[in-house]
Amino acid sequence: MYHGDAIYLVRLDDDIAHLRLDQPGSKVNTLNRAVLQELGAVLPLLQNSNLRGLICSSAKAGFIAGADISQFSELFQGPQQALEDWCRESNALFTALEELPFPTLSLIAGHALGGGLEFALATDFRIAAPNASFGFPEVGLGICPGFGGTVRAPRVMDPDSALDMLSSGASCSAVEALTSGLVDALVDADLLLDAAREQIAQALDEADDWQALRAHKRSAVMDRNTAMALVSPLQHKLAQGAGRHNPAPLRVLELLGQSLAQPREEALAGEQALFVSLARSEVAQNLIGLFSNEQYLRHKNRSLVAQAREVKQAAVLGAGIMGGGIAYQCALKGIAVRMKDIAQSGLDAGMNEAQKQLQKLLGKGRLSEQEARNALARITPSLEYAAYDEVDLLVEAVVENAAVKEKVLAEAETQLRDDAVLCSNTSTISITRLGKALQHPERFCGMHFFNPVPLMPLVEVIRGEQSSEQAIASTVQFAQRLGKTPIVVNDCPGFLVNRILFPYFGAFARLLHDGADFLQIDAVMEAFGWPMGPAYLLDVVGIDTAVHAQAVMAEGFPERMRYGFTSAMDMLAEAGELGQKTGSGFYRYVAGSDGRLQKQRDDAVIARIRELHPARRNFTDREILERMMLALCLETVRCLEDGIVDTAIEADMGLILGLGFPKFRGGALRYIDHMGTEEFCTLAQSYRELGPLYSPPALLLAMAGRQERFYA
After folding, report:
1. What's the average model confidence in pLDDT over 54-62?
2. Of 304, 332, 539, 602, which is the most buried if we count CB atoms within 10 A?
């Protein structure tokens, strides 16, 4: 009947048509321009046929992964009228599918996400394989479903479940979909087509049933008061969290409060208007840009690992919390790991950390008892080097001291095979310097994990001057197997993330020196979107750790990063008030009823900081934000200028994954783009009396002169 590039339509022997999606050159089906165009060509054929039913399925492992966001992001930033026209025309296709003159059914295996789920909802019935999963991830991109998802989902499935899916972006399993009414049946994958034919035949025998389903989908679900009562609790919950920075979830709920009480056409018009409004917002542009950045990183890392050697056996030198966390991550992902320390107490701490993390997963039901035992058995603790000739990759994770690391690395090298990779988990120390202690520095690179290891997604893979591409590739692949996102960076003090973090801390220290209140600074930065302000972050990191790292950074970049005064961090470190680990730092910490540490204001610390920095002045929130963000953003530009990373994408992703830079802001360089490079330079120059930390680098000045952006 029809043979396109991505859509194939055949007539089965019982006058039922079978529409199959098989997008060429892709592992998944997406709803891109070409697929929508083919759908537009197929629908008139179906409308004008003498068919008795339609079955829609996928030739891929999954159903449809949603709209091709990379293709449509340019449309979102173009003229509003063009976006409105596209949205209206695309919606007309889904309504035409829904109004075909015979019963329709979608067969779903694997993912049915976003536009893919909206496609399935436009058919009368849905039958799924046990591996199917469903979701509306759009709110995570700052937008809403645009092909009728907010209209059809609460009319097909339990409205409470629909509202939760639409506003949270969370996926549901096949069993959950069956329970909520999203799908009509679960069938083994090899029986899907037979089940579909039976369902269509049954629908034809009971014509009133499928026509009644359609009548329900065209009508209001409930009255306005009932709709508002359903929506209000979720609105209140979201207003306390994500709704503060990403408006999409709350706007979706606001829409549902109206559309549940409206007939289909009116509800669809409301969804389209909201989609256009959200798609053109800065938050959506940033979050869609972040999605594109993630895709870029995945593609780049895939090409990088071509030279990698598989790691079957890993080793960690230095146990404790960090070493134990790395060993746990290896064991969890099925990699056997040897963990060595010079003290039994260190090994005990490392094993305790691994056990603690496994217990957390057990408590959440994400691991069985047997799986937890198997994982723990993959860790071999030892005080000696035993069978290290079997190790493919070793991570040194001893104390952050160059001399100690050099000694440990040189000793470990003698225990390894010639083709094994050697890595150092260091946060600031030059990889090139550490490599000089080795006989074969070409097989050595940095592998910087962030703390806590199980939670932090980023790993910096640091290329020293003599690191081979094979060492880098093997380390990148190893990081991926651990479930991390690796970013390859070139060597310098602090590498990428800490090099950018410490000017931010420097701006904080200078604000305190000039008389600012750290409580106000924390409040301003948290309102901007950071998960915690700089004072709280220093307490979490450990003030002694930060002071030590600051000394390394000041040695590497004295002009910008040497304070020239005793900072509040120096004062607290000297007093042994190191943050959460000691119960006091900038804040005082007490255990709550759930065992978690709660921060409290400490007036004694505030008084001592004022005594250390007696100058007093009132800062506006805007001035605090500008001084903090300028320092961070300008250092990010310098990292790009110095070639520490290759692209703006890697710089921004490093900050988002490693520092918790607010996702909805898109990253430091995208933040500059939104302000404009020329305006950003002008703002930086207005603070030039504060010193080199606020001097725009040559790259930024040149871009400002040409009115260029970091992202096209």
Report:
1. 97
2. 539
Which domain covers residue 617, as residue numbers? 498-706
Cα separation, 70 vs 291, in Å, equals 9
pLDDT in tens, 442-456: 999 999 999 999 999
- Closest among 177, 150, 179 to 166, alpha carbons compared: 150
Q: Taking the mean position of all CA atoms in its chain, how far away is CA 313? A: 28
Report how far residue 184's alpha carbon sits from residue 483's, in angstroms, rounded to the nearest whole number: 35
pLDDT tens track for 329-343: 999 999 999 999 999
Close Cβ partners of 182 (under 8 Å, ≥ 6 residues apart): 126, 134, 153, 156, 157, 161, 172
The region that residue 22 occupies, defined by phi over 0 for left and psi between -120 and 50 for alpha, beta otherwise, is beta
β-strand pairing of 111-113 with 133-135: parallel
- CA distances, 262 to each of 83, 228, 257 (Å): 24, 13, 10
Please report the pLDDT score of residue 241 as a whole number: 66
- DSSP letters, 646-672, are SSHHHHHHHHHHHH---GGGT-HHHHH
Q: Mark whether 101 and 65 lie in a shared domain.
A: yes
Last residue of a domain, one of 442, 476, 491: 491
pLDDT at 683: 98
Q: Is 449 left (phi over 0), alpha (psi -120 to 50) or beta?
A: beta
Rounded distance between C-alpha atoms, residue 445 and residue 464, angstroms: 6
Q: Are 305 and 471 in contact (CB under 8 A)?
A: no
Strands (E), 403-474: 421-424, 444-449, 458-463
**Same-domain pairing of 564 and 522:** yes
By DSSP bridging, strand 125-128 and strand 104-108 are parallel
Last-in-domain residue among 280, 302, 330:
280
Q: Which residues, other chains included, contact 92 with Cβ-Cβ below 8 Å and sequence gap of 6+?
A: none
pLDDT tens profile 73-90: 889 989 999 999 999 999
Strand, helix or coil at 205? helix
DSSP string, 513-537: HTT--HHHHHHHHHHHT-SS-HHHH
> What share of residues in the chain are helix, strand, coil (percent, to 5)?
55, 15, 30
The domain total for the chain is: 3
CATH of the domain at 653: 1.10.1040.50
Q: What angle do CA 427, 670, 141 make, to 5 degrees?
A: 100
Residue scoring higher pLDDT (63 or 593): 63
> Is 448 part of the annotated catalytic residue set?
yes
Please state, in angstroms and rounded to a whole number, the distance separating the CA atoms of residues 522 and 614: 20
Measure the CA–CA gap between 534 and 505, rounded to whole angstroms: 7
Q: Is residue 298 part of a domain?
A: no
Q: What is the pTM of this model?
A: 0.92
Among candidate residues 448, 548, 613, 674, the one labeled active-site is 448
Say if residue 204 is exposed, middle or buried (CB neighbours under 10 Å; 0-12, 13-18, 19+).
Answer: middle
- The H or E element containing residue 485 is strand 485-490
Q: Give the type of residue at 663.
A: K
Residue 640: name the closest of 556, 710, 694 by CA. Answer: 710
Cα–Cα distance, 658 to 639 (Å, whole number): 15
CB 629 within 8 A of CB 671: yes
Closest CA to 320 of 362, 356, 367, 360: 356
Cβ-proximal residues to 246 (8 Å cutoff; 6+ apart), any chain? 139, 142, 283, 287, 664
Sequential DSSP letters for 162-200 = HHHHHHH--EEEHHHHHHHTSSSEE--GGGHHHHHHHHH
